[in-house]
Amino acid sequence: MSQKAKRSVDADSPAVQVAGFIAKFDPEVAKMTRAARSIVRKRFPTAIELVYDNYNALAIGYSPTERTSDVIFSLAVYPRWVSLYFLHGRSLADPRKLLQGSGTQGGFIKLESIETLDDPAVKALIQAALKHSKVSFATKGRGYTIVKSISEKQRPRRARN
Question: Which in 3, 36, 124, 148 has the greatest CB count within 10 A?
Answer without folding.
Answer: 36
